[in-house]
## 1
Amino acid sequence: EAGVAQSPRYKIIEKRQSVAFWCNPISGHATLYWYQQILGQGPKLLIQFQNNGVVDDSQLPKDRFSAERLKGVDSTLKIQPAKLEDSAVYLCASSAAEGRYGYTFGSGTRLTVV
Amino acid sequence: RKEVEQDPGPFNVPEGATVAFNCTYSNSASQSFFWYRQDCRKEPKLLMSVYSSGNEDGRFTAQLNRASQYISLLIRDSKLSDSATYLCAVNRGYSTLTFGKGTMLLVSP
């Protein structure tokens, strides 16, 4: 089975610029997650989708971050405008069966804001 | 108290040693528990689930202690290839996992 696909792998932008990340989950996985992992920290949930509906976005900085999953399959996470502290790895994950068997992560997008 | 806490380490052990990590969680209603392995500059990969009855997979044993609210991971006969960061993950509601900061393990020859 194909894994979770993410692009791009790396991105370097200047502060105040905008950036977008794309994720395609494992086929058939209804639940999709975006996590932010800052160096030396564990992954932190930004937003969780069930099909195309948002289940949890309580930790998403909504003044600058947005995400969508319009057709219940792939998803886009956007940051506008970026800040230096947004430098991190953005991980997409998907799960079946309400996450009872854990998640599968994509390889992530490493964002550097300069 | 943080939702999920781990000793960041690093744990430095020689090959062949047995090493154990603990992870404490604050939400007594948590139902699902996992250990993930993360290699440097890679994504986390599911190592094993943690069941109430414990779980063993080869050299790895995971246990859950609900009374004291912690999970553990025991690695026997450590290999160089076990060097990685081990993340524990605990659910906090509808399938959402909260991760600890991870424990770094370094296995030396």
## 2
Amino acid sequence: GAGVSQSPRYKVAKRGQDVALRCDPISGHVSLFWYQQALGQGPEFLTYFQNEAQLDKSGLPSDRFFAERPEGSVSTLKIQRTQQEDSAVYLCASSLVTSSYNEQFFGPGTRLTVL
Amino acid sequence: QKEVEQDPGPLSVPEGAIVSLNCTYSNSAFQYFMWYRQYSRKGPELLMYTYSSGNKEDGRFTAQVDKSSKYISLFIRDSQPSDSATYLCAMTNSGAGSYQLTFGKGTKLSVIP
């Protein structure tokens, strides 16, 4: 079956522009996570959804970052007024349930470069 | 100090060697321990996960967790050039509700034919 897909795969933005990154999770997966992976680093947690509810946004680095999942499926991560320090790979992951540990399946990521 | 420490390498070994990768952590609440493999320009893929302390073997891969020392390891036997990738340790605690993963920095491994 299809895995997690993300679009665009690459995005170049000028400093100050707004960007929107899309994630299509595996069909039927309840949980959706966003991570940020800077060059040479491991992924760092940004935010988590259970269905359409955003239950944890403790990792969002500033109020310029906003995520939504209005129908409990596709999710969008929006970054307003991008800064150079926002340059990173943004990874989306989904998992089946959250009643116990379940494998998180990762998408290929969106590589954001802010000039 | 980060919650999870991992030597980023790079690590270069000849084909057929035994590879040892490890991470240390500081949060005693972590209960689930994972190893992910990440190829260049790809997302991480799960190799193995272990709950609490103990060993787990899957083919050429063995994962070990020592909670008393807050130390986890991944061993790769008979390493192959196709094993060349970045290996990320990750962990999470039970009962947290979200099961967000905390990752190490990743170790870049090259297996030379």
